[in-house]
Amino acid sequence: MAIERAIRLLLMVAEQEKPLHAQELAERSGLPLSTTYRYLEHFRRQGLIMQVATAQYSLGPRALQFSLSFERSLGLTSQVLERLHRLAERSEETVALVAAIGTRAVCLESVDSRYGLRYSFRRGSQLPLVRGASAKALLPLLSPETVQDVMRQERLSLQEQANLLREIASIQERGYVETEGEVDVGVWAIGAPIWRSTLRVPTAVSIIAPVVRVTERRKMQLRDLLLRAVMEW
């Protein structure tokens, strides 16, 4: 359908951190260049995208309305964001607030460490719920039916399903999950479910750091900081 092709094109623009050329958008989407230009012009007139250079496009100012409306619908308040920033200051590492939306983990907000870290799970990013501590920490908050849906969607083998169910039980017991290199090479993360979240969707918080910076002692420190933060949430 034409509307589906147009939406996919808009999402393609939204997912990029830098403007894309119309030719590149046409090649990635498989649309004719003339059709690509026509869709882009429709979106430009509505303020959803803007032309930042010759035939180069990025999201427009009206797209911000979608983001703000989404945050309000979830209950993402300034108080919640203050807690996240406080955890970033105390840990001196990158932190992320994530939510389960359907069968995906969505990063609602992230605060970067002052030391810098190359990682891909930033605000607005999505991940399978079975990859990385940030996403896996959400699993104990989901219904058994949703967990089954996730495993079917990810096409896990019977052994992988059994391993995941054991991991969920472990998170429920310990209150956290640690992973290394599951999303980005050389990156360690620890995530914890927020059992009494004020948000309207299952949420978790995580601390993300380079493997080279996290000794066993440092891991214990960050684990304690994270669990205390979750208790105060």
From TrEMBL:
<dbReference type="InterPro" id="IPR036388">
    <property type="entry name" value="WH-like_DNA-bd_sf"/>
</dbReference>
<keyword id="KW-0805">Transcription regulation</keyword>
<dbReference type="InterPro" id="IPR029016">
    <property type="entry name" value="GAF-like_dom_sf"/>
</dbReference>
<dbReference type="Pfam" id="PF09339">
    <property type="entry name" value="HTH_IclR"/>
</dbReference>
<dbReference type="InterPro" id="IPR005471">
    <property type="entry name" value="Tscrpt_reg_IclR_N"/>
</dbReference>
<feature type="domain" description="IclR-ED">
    <location>
        <begin position="62"/>
        <end position="233"/>
    </location>
</feature>
<protein>
    <submittedName>
        <fullName>IclR family transcriptional regulator</fullName>
    </submittedName>
</protein>
<keyword id="KW-0238">DNA-binding</keyword>
<dbReference type="InterPro" id="IPR014757">
    <property type="entry name" value="Tscrpt_reg_IclR_C"/>
</dbReference>
<dbReference type="GO" id="GO:0003677">
    <property type="term" value="F:DNA binding"/>
</dbReference>
<dbReference type="GO" id="GO:0045892">
    <property type="term" value="P:negative regulation of DNA-templated transcription"/>
</dbReference>
<dbReference type="Pfam" id="PF01614">
    <property type="entry name" value="IclR_C"/>
</dbReference>
<feature type="domain" description="HTH iclR-type">
    <location>
        <begin position="1"/>
        <end position="61"/>
    </location>
</feature>
<dbReference type="InterPro" id="IPR050707">
    <property type="entry name" value="HTH_MetabolicPath_Reg"/>
</dbReference>
<keyword id="KW-0804">Transcription</keyword>
<dbReference type="InterPro" id="IPR036390">
    <property type="entry name" value="WH_DNA-bd_sf"/>
</dbReference>
<dbReference type="GO" id="GO:0003700">
    <property type="term" value="F:DNA-binding transcription factor activity"/>
</dbReference>
